[in-house]
Amino acid sequence: MLEVTDLHVHYGVIHALKGVSFYLNEGEIVALIGANGAGKSTLLNTISGILEATGGKIEYLDEVISNSAPQDIVNKGVTQVPEGRKIFPSMSVIENLEMGAYSLENRKGILNKIDAMLEKFPLIKDRGNQLGGTLSGGEQQMLAIARGLMADPKLMLLDEPSMGLAPVLVEQVFDTIQEINKQGTSILLVEQNAQMALSIANRAYVLETGNITLGGTGRELLNNPQIIKSYLGGQ
Questions:
Q1: 174-185, pLDDT tens digit by residue?
Q2: Which residues, including other chains, have CB under 8 Å from residue 185's CB and lie 6 or more apart?
Q3: What is the domain-level CATH number for residue 161?
């Protein structure tokens, strides 16, 4: 479904991604783990067209999408839920959801989707007219995910969805990710909570200073001594 081959990205003279290659099959949850500054968000932003690749190739459903415009990538079925949620704080919950459906033209269909999202996400169900900026962190994260689903993505890119959330909300977020996946959306998950990410991932990769250094099933990486020592707090 998604294949990234020898991908390079530069910020001026800084070589942020140094020949990254990986793939994601339809229906999978694939996790990317790594320390701050490893290039995880850069990778997602390049796939979604926000950043420009300086080398390599990104293919989605057998079509090269490298350096395509972000709106074109959304129209092809790829949406991103950005790090830090980045909801629109001065807009209501409903208005935020409408922004996620900007590429859709059927007004009735959009209203039906909004109703479906409010039903799907109990944390925001009764907050349709509340301003996004007044929601709690967990509510904002659920709104950000719901907004990403408004465009009916085949592939969703999730960037640090558990960041800054209390443990009970982290569990809810990961349950939600699994439910979205079961309903047919493939997931590329960037997450610093390696334990949770690997526990739900079909496969996973480790990104270190712009390079993929390790890959395998989620279970394999959970049991890998190097991963346990570096990312899971073990000895």
A1: 999 999 999 999
A2: 149, 153, 154, 155, 156
A3: 3.40.50.300
Last residue of a domain, one of 131, 151, 171: 151
State the pTM of this model.
0.92
**Confidence band (pLDDT; 50, 70, 90) for 57?**
very high
**Number of domains present in the structure of the chain:** 2
Query: Which of 138, 114, 142 shows the shortest CA–CA distance to 128?
Result: 114
The tokens for 43 are 């990778």
HSE of 13 in the Cβ direction (CA atoms, 13 Å)? 0
Q: Please tell me whether residues 114 and 164 are part of one structural domain.
A: no
Give per-residue pLDDT as tens, 145-170.
999 999 899 999 999 999 888 888 89
Q: Are 49 and 13 contained in the same domain?
A: yes
DSSP 207: E
User: 158 and 234: one domain?
Assistant: yes
**b or e along 138-171 (b: 16 or more beta carbons within 10 Å of the residue's beta carbon)?**
bbbbbbbbbbbbbbebbbbbbbbbbbebeeebbe
